[in-house]
């Protein structure tokens, strides 16, 4: 397919990219916009490392063509917060040290953010369901779950 100029709204800014309409959103985010939060994992939409929010819904950017993203709001990990003002989900993951290698972290954080946008105080079962298709091979599941529940206001942070 021939390349076209396509306008995408990513993290609140409009970007014009030259790409074929069927190009996976992940490639445009990483290669053209230099946003490295979403990771390439399986390339099949099954592992969750490439998760972004599209109009507030968690989506696998490795299988979504950019033509399906025109006139939609795309939010990546870089758009959640800054080093000085991190998003509450990011703060919770930092406080709970909810990562080992960190490769899955983008997907976990974005999945929880999407959940909290639609269900501000989810149950543990709802958190588990939201993370159901995000894979982590390091074994940080306990910390990830605590971070998610902390971000949801379902547990009180312990004072150290």
The CATH class of the largest domain is identified as Alpha Beta
Give the second-level CATH assignment, the architecture of the largest domain: Roll
Number of strands: 5
Would you identify the regions where 5 or more consecutive residues have pLDDT less than 50?
Answer: none
From the spread of the alpha carbons, the general shape counts as: elongated
* Main sheet summary: 5 strands, mixed
> For the largest beta sheet, what order do the strands appear in spatially?
2-1-5-3-4
Topology:
Blueprint lengths: L3 E7 L2 E7 L5 H8 L18 E4 L2 E4 L12 E3 L1 H4 L7 H8 L9 H14 L5 H7 L10 H11 L9
Short structural description:
The chain is an alpha+beta fold and 160 residues long. The protein contains six helices and five strands.
Walk me through the structure.
The chain is α+β, with helices and mostly antiparallel strands. The protein folds into 2 domains: 4-80, Ubiquitin-like (UB roll) (Roll), CATH 3.10.20; 88-151, DNA polymerase, domain 1 (Orthogonal Bundle). It has 6 helices and 5 strands. Strands 2-1-5-3-4 form a 5-stranded mixed sheet, with helices on both faces. β3 and β4 (57-60) form a beta hairpin. The longest helix has 14 residues, at 105-118. It is elongated and about 50 Å long. The model has no long low-confidence stretch (mean pLDDT 92).
Key structural traits:
160 residues, alpha+beta, Ubiquitin-like (UB roll), DNA polymerase, domain 1, 6 helices, 5 strands
């Amino acid at each position: 397919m021939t390349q076209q100029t396509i306008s995408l709204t990513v993290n609140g800014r409009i970007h014009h990219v030259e790409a074929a309409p069927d190009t996976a959103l992940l490639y445009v985010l990483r290669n053209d916009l230099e946003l490295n939060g979403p990771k390439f994992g399986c390339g099949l939409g099954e592992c969750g490392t490439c998760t972004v929010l599209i109009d507030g819904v968690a989506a696998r950017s490795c299988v979504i063509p950019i033509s399906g993203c025109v006139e939609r709001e795309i939010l990546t990990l870089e758009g959640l917060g800054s080093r000085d003002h991190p998003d509450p989900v990011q703060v919770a993951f930092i406080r709970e040290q909810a990562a080992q290698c960190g490769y899955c972290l983008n997907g976990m954080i974005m999945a929880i953010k999407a959940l909290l946008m639609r269900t501000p105080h989810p149950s543990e079962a709802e958190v588990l369901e939201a993370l159901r298709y995000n894979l982590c091979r390091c074994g940080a599941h306990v910390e990830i779950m605590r971070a998610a529940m902390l971000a949801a206001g379902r547990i009180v942070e312990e004072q150290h």
